Amino acid sequence: MEFFDAIYDHLYEFIGAYMFLALALTLFTGLPVAIALGGISVIFGGLAIYLEFLDVAVFFQVIQRVWGGDGASGAVQNPILVAVPCFVFMGTMLEKSRVAEDLLHILQVMLRRVPGALALSVTVMGTIMAATTGIIGASVVMMTLLALPAMLQRGYHPALATGTIAASATLGILIPPSIMLVLMANLLAVSVGNLFIGAIFPGLVLSGLYFAYILLISGIRPQLAPPLPDDAIVLEPTQKKNVGRVCMVVAGVVLVAVLGEEFLGDDIINWGLCGFLVIFAACMILGRLEGDTMLGGVLRGFVPPIFLIVMVLGSIFAGWATPTEAAGVGAFGSLILAWFNRTLSKQVLTQVIHRTALTTAMIFFIFVGATAFSTIFRNVYGEDLIIEFIEWLDLHPWSLLFMLMFTIFLLGFFFDFLEITLIILPVFAPIIRAMAPAFANHLGYADPVTVADTQFLEAQVIYWFAILVATNLQTSFLTPPFGFALFYMKGVAPSSVKMQDIYLGIVPFVALQVIGILLVLEFPGLALWLPEQILGR
Question: Is 236 helix (H, G, I), strand (E, B) or coil?
């Protein structure tokens, strides 16, 4: 009898630890993540009820947290998450609209005399496209199909070619608009707009590190990235009259917008937005008339992504739309781009809607499973167990932060960003928030003396922590054996490209991502300065 009492007491204290361990083992079996999360929740919830640790009403609490009755408390009805299907639709539609193809072409033209021109073009294209879509699978496949055959044909080393494409195509997980940032904002109950703005500089830092590495390696070992021959890209001469037309249209529209806002006001008409749309339409039409010239390439290559970036991020920063509304604007903008590029058809629209529905269903299925897991885990005092373990370790806040970043990095070798985000953030964010005063001086703030100061500091620490995690999760797409970007690439790459080439190619880029994480750790202003300038304290 004492033996069973000892087992009962042991389970009462450590059932949360066994629940976490069971989840880890189940994920390694290859079972779908959503089913693993939900199944473990049901099994351990039922066990806790059987052992009378919990009441059966805990399952009604799970339903409340998944669905919610007020349209805000539940994961499924949370208005913030409406942005997810819109961003998925936008990214999938962009894949069909040939925007990336035109952009890569003009970037090759502009960088053709620079060492490693094609790889640098891919990096710049990946950065620009990241600001238009947060769908990594679509970006990797699209950029691999567009750039990899051309890079191999030009004599690029397969490792450098595949590493450049994989790293550049996954920038969309960090540079807004990013689905991951939307999910993180929901989990942390913070502003999506703040996260979007805060992620811009870290994303550009990673892109800059890639650019500098390619430039350096191409200069030191030009055989890895041969320069483009002078006759590789032949352009027709630009028609001077079209240059004048573009200048006249831009100047005329800007003048009308300024005068309209000055004398008529913007209560009824948003003159700035209307002027921007007119300039976009005129540039697209003139770019098509110009043909394969430098001006035509610039208009067709740069104007569409700039249009979408302004429509999504510009509408958020200008206060015209909330992040959720901006996602709908971006989805509509991708339809306009596809129509201008003459790729919009009933068949394409059907395919895009179908893929959007499947991707969104997968994301929300995982979200439901993760919500159920976190609810049961919290009710069996799993979080308290983790807090007690951390207190037992007696780690300095900086040691804990480094340990957590290292843990997320290791988890990226085996799990997708969704699983890591949904499991790690709800557990560790409150712990980091409680340690906020220890990071005050590093973030450039005085020690809090009032409740308002403490709340502000905790919010800033959480934003910094979220950007750190987001930067760290870049590696989860590239690190073997389960780097999803690597498998997306291998699925569409030429047969001459071996998996070992892809693994070899991503090593320096993962190292650069680690440098990026350390830079955001050392210089928190990379994540916090821009939101403060735009949104204020």
Answer: strand
* Reported pTM: 0.80
Mean pLDDT of the region 114-142: 78
Helices and strands (H and E) in the chain: how many: 24, 0
Q: What is the mean pLDDT of the chain?
A: 79
3 state SS of 231: coil
CA distance 306 to 290: 19
Backbone angles phi, psi at 495, to 5 degrees: -65, -20
Query: Encoding tokens for residue 22?
Result: 């069971």
Sign of CA dihedral 86, 196, 484, 420: negative
Mark 303-316 as b/e (b = at least 16 C-beta within 10 Å): bbbbbbbbbbbbbb
* Arithmetic mean of pLDDT, 10-32: 75
Report CA dihedral (519, 520, 523, 525) to the nearest 10 degrees: 140
pLDDT above 70 for 137: no
Q: How many CB atoms lie within 10 A of CB 113?
A: 9
Q: What is the pLDDT of residues 246-265, one digit of tens each?
A: 788 888 888 888 887 777 77
User: Does the bond joining 177 to the residue before it have cis omega, within 30 degrees of 0?
Assistant: yes
- Provide the CA 223 distance to its chain's centre, in angstroms: 33
| pLDDT the model gives residue 8 | 66
Say which amino acid occupies 377: F
Instruction: Report which of 506, 428, 498, 429 is spatially closest to residue 474, judged by C-alpha positions.
Output: 506
Q: Pseudo-torsion of CA 46, 50, 51, 56, nearest 10°?
A: 70
- Who contacts 455 (Cβ-Cβ below 8 Å, separation ≥6)? none
Between 204 and 317, whose confidence is greater? 204
Under a CB-based contact definition with an 8 Å cutoff, are residues 457 and 436 in contact?
A: yes
Count of C-beta atoms within a 10 Å radius of residue 360: 18
Q: Which two tokens stand for residue 233?
A: 């890209």
DSSP 98: T
Residue 236 φ/ψ region, left for φ over 0, alpha for ψ in the -120 to 50 degree band, beta for the rest: beta
According to DSSP H, which parts of 451-483 are helical? 451-473
CB atoms within 10 A of CB 248: 11
**Inter-helix orientation angle 83-96/346-379, to 10°:** 140
Percent of the chain past pLDDT 70, that is, above it, reads: 88
pLDDT of 70 reads 46
Q: How far apart are CA 435 and CA 428, in angstroms?
A: 11
- Give the ranges where 51-157 is alpha helix by DSSP (H): 58-66, 83-96, 99-111, 117-130, 136-153
Structure tokens at 28: 């390694």
b/e code 332-348 from CB counts within 10 Å (16+ = b): ebbbbbbebbeebeeeb
User: Which residue shows structure tokens 């699209």?
Assistant: 142
Look up residue 426 and give its two tokens. 């709800």
Q: Please tell me the distance from the alpha carbon of residue 301 to that of residue 190, in angstroms, as a whole number.
A: 35
**φ, ψ of residue 293 in degrees (nearest 5):** -120, 175
Q: Which amino acid is at 337?
A: L
